[in-house]
Design a protein that fits this description.
- By secondary structure, this protein is α/β, with parallel strands linked by helices.
- A hairpin with a 4-residue loop joins strand 1 and strand 2.
- The strands form three sheets. It has a five-stranded mixed β-sheet with strand order 5-4-3-6-7.
- It has 27 helices and nine strands.
- Helix 7 crosses helix 8, helix 18 runs antiparallel to helix 19 and helix 20 runs antiparallel to helix 22.
Length: 699
Amino acid sequence: MSHNSKYYRQKIKKKDAEGVSKISSYFKPNTNVGDDEKCENPTESQTIEMPHRSTEEDTKHRSSEEKIEAVTSSSKESMQASAFSLQQFQPKEEGTKVSYSDTVTLQSFDKRKFSAQKYESQYSWLYFSHVKKGFLCKYCELFGVSSSVSPFINKGVDLGTHPTRTLDTHNESKCHKFAVERYSLCKTNTNVYRQLKIQDQVTQGKEVKNKEAVKKIFKCVDFLTRQKLAVSENTEKFVKFVAGLGDNDLQNHLNDSTQKTKYLSSNSVTQIINTISNFHEQELLADMRDKEFALLADESTDMANRSQLSVMARFSRSDNTISTHFLGFVNLDKGTSEAVMEALKSFLLAKGIEIGKVRFVALDGCNTMSGEHKGLQRRIRHESPFSLYINCRNHRLALCLAHLIKKYPILQEIDASLLSLWKLFEFSPQKMAVFKNMQSVYGKEPLTILRAATTRWLSHLHASARFVSRYTCILDTLDAIYDEKKDPEILGIRFNVTKKPLLAGIVLLCDILKPVNMLSLYLQEQDINFTTLPMHVKETIDILHELIGKYQENQLDETEFLKVRDLFTEINDRTDLARRMRDRDRDEMTPETFLERIGIPLIYDLIQEIEDAFCTGAPVLSSFGVLDPRNLPDTVEKLSDYGQDEIQKIADFYGSPKDDAFQGHRIQVRALFDSVALRTELTSFKRHLYMLSSCRSFA
């Protein structure tokens, strides 16, 4: 309701005025008085002479007054409505002229004011603030959480003409209910410190449970990462699987948490992986910074034609174990040794690793890396004069055959033919299905063609062996596909694979790459012993010399080259008569002719390449073989003279200061050890090593 009278003043209805004289009748002159008679009392502007009325009329008038008074007094909140008072005069004498001295006074309408007491009693929280010049809520003012200017909290409210609607809206608001709850709590006789302590204990309990669940999620992600599985796709499934095995903490975390707080989204998993990576990296670098280490680096180009340098380090951990760790990739703007060196120095500096503590450097055999005058290994040796360069022996071994391509073009033809045959079946499922079906017809296990990598010649062994074992099936498959489609590409491939020199060269690779691949596998071992490397190289060279002797003496029973004669017969049977007639004048290629012209000279050149590849290296590197227990003598008498020269080389290298000059820059480094003390220590260690080896062999 409103305090304005126009909204709740009751109207006087017409039926309530029945029998009541009209107000205009009071303003008419008295008809009973003569024209020449005047009123005794001249009236003012608001005083009117009232005619004398009969008793019946007076009764009716009083009843109308009572009705009007009853109507106007029906509203308790309003003031007395416009009323008039009628005072009746008694006649002085019967029959004389009577004049009424009673007056009708007209008063102003509805002078009532808005009563705040009504609403303050209805809403206990409401009060008027003279400072804010409006109504405020005492609860929200004390415990409100709004930081901006809000009504009833820090801004006075003018209730206006419809206060009930505004007050009810605020009374039902969430912020008001929250403030009322806080107010009721503060009124209770509760120990605040105890309540805060209880709340803190509850919060700590939730934090402990949450930490335990997150810790187990971290372990799950770490397990998936170590197993080299797709982490972002399998984390949620794996965590739910572990929780289903009976892990109550993890299961409660999944049940009680919302989707945003389960820590299983792709962004959360990515952050977990980065956190684990940073933790392991910082732990690794902290263990590495104060130690000497071996540096391994290799450059490669990705599919986006970006050059990157992969950097690894090998060092002794705090638990006395030697391990190799990946440090990261270095983006290279240029492929020169100077640009690579600058990028490598910046990378190690960012990791907090001192390049002067490098003791061994392992790089590939290209000139940019292994150059003696301006290569990367030379620049690193200038920064760390005690560093020793070890080129990638496996890379050098793979380059041995690559160097022979210039002298023997047949090797390039073999590489191109094997690669084109692999592409033919690899990128056509239909042709691959025909090839597998053809193998099934011959009663053989359906196999695919293996790829021969151009830059890794050692992979040609398996590709050549697969080609020889499925040669007949390959020819039948090419004939079947060509008869159906008449594709000139297939005809060209068939023409190449039926060349006798190329076929004999593929079979020859099966023989000569076997011992070479054995040496390559030895070089790929994680705990390779370089002191025994010359022995393995010698064994490989001896096998190749033995193979040459078998070829020269025509003892082909234990070699793959024995199959060449049957393969040549297969080619003759599949060659058209016209083609054989055209080639009659040419020299007929036989297995013996191929070995004499190409095979045996190729093996000799390969032996020379292997010897050249493994003969280089610092003399001090081979001297470390004296510390290998497998090289110790069998008797104590020989122990005193064993390894004296090698020990002296090691003592001279590490026991003397280094002075190095490179491109006008000079660096001087003190000796790492005392030469005499180091020689004495190594000699004593040699005896202890012999005693330990003897005890183990005796046990």
